[in-house]
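sorry for the late reply, my laptop died twice this morning and i had to redo everyting from scratch. anyway the thing you sent over, i finally got around to it. pasting the sequence first so we're on the same page, its 322 residues, then the predicted structure underneath. double check i copied it right bc i was rushing
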Amino acid sequence: GRRAVAMMQNSGLGNAVSPLTSLSHVFRIPTLLIVTHRGAPGLKDEPQHALMGPITERMLRTMEVPCEVFPQEPEAIAPALERAEGYMEREGRPYALLMKKGTVAPHPLRRQAVPAPAGERAGVRRLERGRPPTRREALERVLAGEDGRTVVIATTGYTGRELYALEDRPCHLYMVGSMGCASSLGLGLALARPDLRVVVVDGDGAALMRMGNFATLGAYHPPNLVHLLLDNGVHDSTGAQATVSAHVDFAGVARACGYRTILAGDDPALIDRLLAGEGLRFGHLRTIPGTIEDLPRPAITPEQVRSRLMEWIDTRHKSEGH
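ok and here's the structure:
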């Protein structure tokens, strides 16, 4: 329910293009962006900012993110924030404030506490049956394990579409684009709403694109988050191009990053164990490529998916007397 603020150097905009254009814009998720403007026109700076500096404002406007310069006069800051808040409330989309060098006076940085380690590193438990399941079999297990407090975030591509085809529920979020960002979104929700169980259904291709998420999840180790990775070894929805997942020990990565429970194998029963467990959990389930015949696309828009999920969460919040 609270407004999000993201602070970054403008060189980070390139990394943020996918979530800004296919998550924030499409789902109408308002975020205040405070972007420091390295390499601004007329400013001598490092060579890596020579192109990004001049195109920063154009890049934001191309993504339909309105922007203005962060005020240097203290009395002008509140009106600027009011304009940003008004736009975000009205349009439901991001707004950016570009901060030029020298806008903020030097200030000692108070070191923030790093989350305490989760404890002793977990071992990896393997569950094998000798025959990988289909994605559908895996998702049916997820559906069967849902309760009245579970939110499921499905990664982009066939995973979200198959989950929708099997059973569309208001507690589901089907990612579109934003490849690799499902676990980041799940982390934010799990931290904000510890009363909910958040299940992230990831894919090998998506996870490989943003491997740093494992480290962040492990560092914050929310006890109410389940990270399930379905690994079929291909980018299924774009033509089944091979990923490099066969060379990656995802369970080992999760262990190194501090997940509490780690299961791996080709037995879909590991999903049942993950859902019944406690603490930050990770499951690496090998599946076979392919999808449901005549797989439909969601008839509901991403904005509607977001709105009804927020309503569903709010209903749970009120029913518990918060």
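The mean pLDDT is 94.
thats about all i looked at so far, will dig more tmrw
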